[in-house]
Structures
1.
Amino acid sequence: MEKIKDYKNFLQLNTKVNISVRSGSYQGVYDSRIEDLRGDGIYISLPTLKGVPFPILPGTEVEVSFIASGGRFSFDTKVEGRVVDGIPMLKLKKPEYIYRSELRKFFRVDCRLKIKIHRLFFEKLNGDIIFKVNSYDALVKDISGGGVRLQTEIELVEDDIIQVDLTDHFPTINEIFGRVVTVFPKVDKKYEYGVEFISIRERDRDLIVKYVFRRQIELKKLT
Amino acid sequence: MAFYKEREGKIELIFPVSDMDAITGCEIKDYINKIVNEVDVVIINFSRITYINSSGLRELIQILKLLQDKDKKLFLTNLSENIKKIFVNTNIIKIINIYPTDEDVKRSL
């Protein structure tokens, strides 16, 4: 993680942020946006969860994370107060530093998600073009905004492209193209692969990143 | 608008500006259907496309069929490395003509 002191080029107005509350009555991961940056404060819109606003209490410690050009950034801070200036906002204390991790190195969490993967082919047959889909069961063993490690019965090689269908866990995410970047040794007669997402909508990536944050909190509670 | 367009003689240049999915693909197909008798060649420039899904791929095949039925040609240009990998792996690259740039297509005609 890279420590950045001069972060004004990364943290800007209208940046979408995730607010993670790890303890207290508002525990969870919320959506918000940078509304203003002035003095020693960062002013964000009221954090929401599924569209419902949560006016997190002053004094609550939060982790703010966001994706901007150049990577994924995060910092710890505290809610200093609630402010109404045209719209209701929370004032956060400006941090001394923020931290950057490369987008490619999204934080991964362990999980066990049963999903489907598909292989797509187009073929010319008797002058017509046929579209074929072969579908297989797979088990996601870890996930990040950048890809998955999964176990399946089909043999793939490096650079193969698969479609990752996460609809059973993320109802809107059924169409991510991924590239096999790592082939791991077989485990329990099953093949295991590292798959990098190469065609994913940013809003779908945001949903996965939020899941990763939530899962991190769940796993911390278990330890 | 999911795409911009330009006409150069009998060549129609199409620049999709959003995801290449069913919606964008369908809009482009409907537009080409209207102008198919006015042009000989359609170039779809992918320079602004970072996301494609299977519906987008199928729409491209529909566009190809639409043009081939009228003896017209389809070319794709300026594909990102990742989208090119998808096209190679799904065999699209064997079905649709893909060139690095619009100029390369024009030189080949």
2.
Amino acid sequence: MLWRGAIALLGLRSNCGYARVPLQQKIQPKRVIFVLFNTKLFILVFLPLALCGFLLLGRLGRKPALGWLFACSLIFYAWWKPVLVLLLMASISVNFCLGKSVQGRKRSGAWLTGGLTFNLALLGFFKYANFFAALLGLRPPFGGVLLPLGISFFTFQQVMYLVDTSRGDIKPPPFLDYACFIAFFPHLIAGPIVRPAHILPQFAGLQPRKDWRVHFSEGGEIFLLGLAKKLVLADGLARFADPGFAAAGAGYPLTLIEAWSALLAYALQIYFDFSGYSDMAIGLARLFGIHFPANFNSPYQARNISEFWRRWNITLSGFLREYLYIPLGGNRRGEMRRIVNLMATMLLGGLWHGAALRFVLWGGLHGAFLVLHGWWRRFGLPLPTFACRSLTLLAVILAWVPFRASGFSAVMNFYQGLFGYNGIAIPALYIKMLPALAHLGRAVPVLPYLGDARSLSLPQAAVFLALGWFIALALPELHSMGRTRRSLALVASFAFSFQALLFAPDTLPFLYFQF
Amino acid sequence: MRRIFLSCALSIVIYLVLFGLVVDRPLSLGLLQLEISQKISIMAALPSPKLVILAGSNGPYSHSCSVIGDMLDMPCENAGIAVGIGLDEMFIRYGPLLHRGDILYMPMELQQYSATGAEYRAGVDGEILFRRDRRILAQLSWGRILGAFFCCSLADILEAGVEMPLVRFGEINPELLLAGEYNAQGDRIDNVRADADAELLHHVVRAAPDAADIAQGYGKKLIAGFVARESASGILVVGGLPTDFLGTQLSMAAIAEIASVYTANGGAFMALPNLSLYPPESFFNSEDHLAQPCQFRHSIAIAYRLAALLHRPVRQPSLAVFQLAAACPVQSMTRYPMSAAR
């Protein structure tokens, strides 16, 4: 008889489909108008055409193939707003000329300063003009500045290029090579941020048709596994993450289980989403014979926060270290200066992720964690590995709240839920099954901000989270897997990717695509 | 390259075998199928002319065949199941059970009209059809068949991992379970107002589709085709509006678009003066589900309207029904005075 009540609360039979539209659908429109890597248009039309053209023109030599690649990249970029191609082209052209000027000139320092100023001004205007205008209580310029896709990424690439060229680490390449390096569509809108010295020689020595079968095999496999991370895991977890954060944003009181479920789901979602994107970018580049470095290395398995940053978004972390923290002085000028440099780097790193104070708060939290870790290491207090990992993971997870929440009030609202300020609510079904649970929390028909708000949402979330955290904590990163493991991963995931790609009615955009 | 192709092919084969033969969601989907088959059996046994109410879950929750059928003195079956069950499938199942002279009232949820073809292909019923009812599946379009083959996500297999052991090792009697939720006419009977989920109702948010969404919807085409076919067979199809929260932005253009689905295809359309909109406290656990007092109140109003449309005599509701309907927290029932109750 217990089941009578249980099934009455299942809800799906009367609510499947549309009866309850989760709150987040009103806040986060799902229709995607970009040619993103996880769309049918990209995978079934754009990519095959780009590859075929690349191989066919590759018969004529490197330059025609690169020209095709560049043209495809511009089409890829133009899909959303064609006019923004002009901005991309202008940025590429100006930086190409600046690169010629900073190399081996007497006044290269001035040219470099000018170049950096140009790039940062461009980024500052497009990405932060609205933000600072709002902070100062002014109207946004031109009625609101549109944020061009990928501007943070292609600007950073070009800053690296100018700095490395001025240092003499690289020589300015021909324009086509340079333009391909910047606009290469696999990393154009969300990275990874690759070192010019690593990529430009590859474009210079590119032989489009050499070993193309090997490239297809390697690149295709990495791309498909990245696609699975995105479509199967990240998008699957979104349904547990989004309702909680949407509710916090709308000012609704989150209870303990809802808040922790949403946060644990989001921590996995952003990891699988961004590492999936990075893997897809790496796989795509490999299809064209270009090797990108790995961008993730099981970051949630890190034993401390410094190690986390050596495993998470590795290329961005490297950029911030090499081009910001070390030029600021790094740890070479005393403890106080180290702390200031570290905090400045992380605060700016946070602000780079988005023009909002909550991103600054996220960066500040990580800066504080790094400072604390530095002190801990200095005092040499030992902790068991399990405790180190757990503590690091907890800190990272808690810091995702400001990163994901829609504003400061939502952040506070969410933390209140996490720390039990709104109490514990438990679906009545489970209290009927285990009456002792009544001592832990109050009975409610369903948890309204957990998944689809059904009684079964709780075990669904638990099982999905268990699988996700098992993958994140116990399995190696894709790039550390051998052939057998990769094959097994493909067998386990391909059909679900196929299903999500071709039969799911909506496509969720990548979380990182407009940073 | 070959290894990758083989891995992908093996993945597809395992997926199809798992979802076609092994994996099941007996709580979520098994009960839905049981509900469908029960309603079909009851409907097949009803004499004509009969009244059939067809919609999503708004049908059984917000309408009462026991009230409407009694007032119109007609056998009545509340055949609605849930919005996620594809209309093409429902029409194939119910079409042969409708006969000349029958009346089909369709207060379809707005999303039923605006649903896209992609949403249909990804419908929850694909899993039921692929796993449990391939005979019906074979009668659907190729898109739907393919959609049913690839019905399921990782979440579904994980949910099956929860539901299958729960049923396997639990004490569950689906027939008994449904008997506690539905009466013989297919009306929902467990939506008592005292158990309404006020907190959930306070927070649910839904945007009503506009006229353009409805006009371009794949669901609209399906409904229009069904109305035309059934009207040509001598069945009177009457369109209606689903229940929703008072304040829902339902434009006149959208209502006109819905009405035209019926009137332009040989059917009729009727709307209550309140456009079937009720304050949130009238509902049970979603915008489509009235709590029982308002289910009865809404049904009384529908019965009077249908009677006028059909030029049929109408009996007053019983005193018990009237008294329960009077507990619905909407404007007073002066239109239907107590003295009118039997």
